[in-house]
Amino acid sequence: MHAWPASEVPALPDKGRDLRIHDTATDGLVTLDPGPVARIYVCGITPYDATHIGHAATYNAFDLVQRVWLDTKRQVHYVQNVTDVDDPLLERAQRDDIDWVALAEKETALFREDMTALRMLPPRHYIGAVEAIPGIVPLVERLRDAGAAYELEGDIYFSVESDPNFGKVSRLDVAAMRLLSAERGGDPDRPGKKNPLDPMLWMAAREGEPSWDGGSLGRGRPGWHIECVAIALDHLGMGFDIQGGGSDLAFPHHEMGASHAQVLTGEFPMAKAYVHAGMVALHGEKMSKSKGNLVFVSTLRREGVDPAAIRLALLAHHYRADWEWTDQVLQDALARLDRWRAAVSRPDGPPAETLVAQMREALANDLDAPAALAAVDRWTALQQERGGTDEGAPGVVSRAVDALLGVAL
């Protein structure tokens, strides 16, 4: 599966600071020193409705991570999946009387268009669940053969008790885990499971649903968590720098994935930091496909909204914060974009070196994009009030905003 084209990232003088970021597993800030190649895995979409503002906010957060690392003169090995076969996708295809493959392809193509318009840097590897199946089957077989998985009516389940570190990602108690498992795709009440929290690794073929040859597992399709594990281990290996996604993935998805990988390899942890973006609400409720309270990036683009303004609307909120999309949020972003573009269009301006340093400092400090925006606002205000004599300053500001924030002025 192919990703989307990369926009050019301007190189800035000197280099930025190492990233200090919040790790869900320790509930604290950690300073990451990835070495010459930083490794990041971000969970992708299930392509039956793409791309709403909640998605965009999540991918914007991890785009900032890439930009901070690139500014430290590192390479970035970024991997993202597409869950192109799953119950919600099949249910939507049946509801709309459309082939599930065609639906997945259509929505994935739209997601690529939205990511391109928003100038999100693409992953080096963009892998669909279906194409990952040949690598998933042997992992499930290994877990089963090691006694870390068991069969129940043809389905294969992972035993969470096989991982002594289970629970260290989300840090939740059993009652909370069970509640979230039921809400987020698990089946804690299924009779016969050894532990209600045990997640499915391989679903035996169901009538009328797609299935693949699973070797000794029989025909079927993979569970949600093992999909990401297979892709991450194949392309990044254990101990990569960041496992990322929305805060609703901390449990069960990232918790279960970490346990799968840790039992398979005997190593801990799967990732050095588990980083989670906040949720975006509309009309007082979290944007949700199931509720249908969505604002789509593609709809805004069709209405003529500049993608740079959409991006500024996202950047105005700290990535870990929960916030609400409103018309005023977008209007504020449009006004800010107009001010910034007017400021950099002048032939000279106030010196920009301090601004670049402030932007770098803000983003290295747990991706504090609102502080970075405020720094640009201060430079813009000085430009409007009294201008300056530095002929290179507007160009420096424009390049810094592009390189660090992904906003083309």
Protein model, in words:
The chain is of the alpha/beta class and 409 residues long. The chain folds into two domains: 20-297, Rossmann fold, CATH 3.40.50; 307-405, Four Helix Bundle (Hemerythrin (Met), subunit A). It is 44% helix and 15% strand. The protein contains 13 helices and 14 strands. It has a five-stranded parallel sheet with strand order 5-4-3-10-11, sandwiched between helices. The longest helix has 19 residues, at 53-71. It is globular and about 75 Å long. The model has no long low-confidence stretch (mean pLDDT 96).
Give the SSE map:
Blueprint: E1 20-23, E2 28-31, E3 37-42, H1 53-71, E4 75-82, H2 87-96, H3 100-117, E5 125-128, H4 129-145, E6 149-152, E7 155-158, H5 174-183, E8 200-204, E9 220-222, H6 224-235, E10 240-246, H7 250-265, E11 271-277, E12 280-282, E13 285-286, H8 297-302, H9 307-315, E14 323-324, H10 327-344, H11 353-364, H12 369-386, H13 393-405
Parallel strand pairs: 3-4, 3-10, 4-5, 10-11, 12-14
Antiparallel strand pairs: 1-2, 6-7, 7-8, 8-9, 12-13
For the terminal residues, how far apart are their CA atoms?
Answer: 31 Å
* Binned strand content: 15-25%
| Overall pLDDT | 96
Estimated radius of gyration: 22 Å
Count of DSSP H/I helices: 13
Number of domains: 2
In the predicted model, the low-confidence regions spanning at least 5 consecutive residues are none
| Assembly level | single chain
| CATH third-level topology of the largest domain | Rossmann fold
* Series of secondary-structure elements, N-terminal to C-terminal: EEEHEHHEHEEHEEHEHEEEHHEHHHH
Structural class: alpha/beta
Could you name the CATH homologous superfamily of the largest domain?
Answer: HUPs
Read across the widest sheet, the strand sequence of neighbours is: 5-4-3-10-11
Q: How many runs of DSSP E, i.e. beta strands?
A: 14
Main sheet properties: 5 strands, parallel
